[in-house]
Amino acid sequence: MSGYVWLVGAGPGDPELMTRRAARVLGEADLVLYDALVDPRALDLAPRARRFPVGKRAGRPSIRQETINRLMVRAAQRGQRVVRLKCGDPFVLGRGGEEALALVAAGVAFEVVPGVSSAVAAAALAGIPVTHRGLAAGFVVVSGHAETAYGPVLDCLAPHSLTVVVLMGLGSRAAVASRLLARGWSPLTPAAVVLGASTEAAHAWTGTLGAMATADVSAAPSAPGTIVVGAVVSLAAVLGRTSEADVSAVAVGAVR
Question: Which of 16, 61, 160, 182 has the greatest number of C-beta atoms within 10 Å?
Fold first, then answer.
């Protein structure tokens, strides 16, 4: 028997931001191996499947990556249809590439179902476009879990040349700020820490790079966080406060 594996991106949190294809393959799955931060409502899209948590959280006991790979391979070899449900996009700092290589090595057929990465979605939902004409022509995304991961990248950037996005870096925000300041970035550079993007716990701190080290993240202490540094963060003052109610009020005012 030969099964199949889908490496599926669950997006930044809200299941409504998942793709239609992601929802369809979840409905066809026999087994779902899901990350710790996947919204439970996304699992409702897989009513006939067994669900097994395999997520990793910093500082907490977690399943080894090799074990996750074996679970996928063995289930597929038994003829099961497996969804490996990953936060954001499977290939953006999510070890999706490692899992794909394990499936290739085992001769298991698979497909990647891209998802909306929080690298751009978290900023966008807080009113921050990661690129904007006249402010930033590009952006760089790094993992904040270790200085060996983000340090070499940040050291190569000319000050204010790109928007910097740091995933999994709440605990490293002081070190990231210090690194950028040492490289010549102004302490007045706009900065933001976006917590729990697209969830009910969503909260955004905005300030400056000089103040980012002491940014208050107590509003959503267990929510995932995304750091954004660059001139584009200044747009959050306008774009981050626009809701459907605000738009309706503006429209009514225009008619009057």
Answer: 160
DSSP string, the chain: ---EEEEEE-BTS-GGGS-HHHHHHHHH-SEEEE-TTS-HHHHTT-TTSEEEE----TTS----HHHHHHHHHHHHHTT-EEEEEESB-TTSSSSHHHHHHHHHHHT--EEEE----HHHHHHHHTT--S-BTTTBS-EEEEE-S-HHHHHHHHHHSPTTSSEEEEES-GGGHHHHHHHHHHTT--TTSEEEEEESTTSTT-EEEEEEGGGGGG---TTSTTS-EEEEESGGGGGHHHHTT--HHHHHHHHHHHH-
Topology classification of domain 118-239: 3.30.950
> pLDDT (tens digit, 9 = 90+) per residue, 142-187?
999 899 999 999 999 999 999 999 999 999 999 999 999 999 999 9
Domain 4-113 has CATH 3.40.50.720: no
* Annotated catalytic residue within 14, 30, 35, 155: 35
pLDDT digits (tens, 9 = 90+) for 56-77: 766 566 789 999 999 999 999 9
Any catalytic annotation for residue 35? yes
14 in catalytic set: no
